Amino acid sequence: MRSDSTVQIALVLPDLLGTYGDFGNAVVLQKRLAWRGIPAEIVPINFGQAVPESCDIYVVGGGEDTAQTLAVKHLQDNPGLQHAVRRGATVLGVCAGIQLFGDHFTRADGVTRPGLGLIDSTSHAGPNRAIGEVLAKPLGGLFDGVLTGFENHQGRTTLGPAARPLAQVTVGTGNDGKVEGAVQGKIVCTYLHGPVLPRNPQLADLLIEWATGTKPAPLDLPILDQLRAERVKAAQRTTDASSRG
Ligand code: GLN
Prior knowledge:
peptidoglycan synthesis; cell shape; alpha/beta; GATase_3; Rossmann fold; six-stranded mixed sheet; Lipid_II_synth_GatD; cell wall biogenesis/degradation; 7 helices
């Protein structure tokens, strides 16, 4: 955190990587910090702008293959995010995020591009687009409850030994039909949109804990619990319907 104790949340390339309202992840972090009396500001970094290395949390959203290719080039040319990771900043990468943080990714058109090398992973185009609701069971005791979200991606991701999966898939595809997302140091990646943090406040609080060094006080927001329960039920209904054929 900065000396004036305002948490800075970098919203990385929302003009390229912002499908399905992924900017909402930054809003949720800011709100959940503010509700605990911790000032926080969102720092949008658009295409063409330098990437500051001093922010506390970096939020990267999803995008189409072309946008993702432009984004990775921009982030290679402006390595503020990579410097921030070396310093121990907290990072959330969604969908295209998990792919471009890895060693390389192969797009749907067969072209392979180098990634940022921030996590031990590679991504390749899968046999079909994975589209729909996802439920997954968090692994490694990172947080309680089910992980819920929406996926729409062609890519599939294979993790190397330095990265561990975020969750085990029970409904949907995630990385490969078995596991979902990646965790390496203070980087969390997921295929889940929704956006993911409004739908999974426990993940938002984990990122806040990593960024501030303090476990955040619980928030009493029954409406969120109710919305989550509805989402989980809806995802469950999708699978029940498809398994009935
Ligand atoms: N372009 C990537 C894919 O299709 C990521 C998509 C996304 O971010 N939703 O796999």
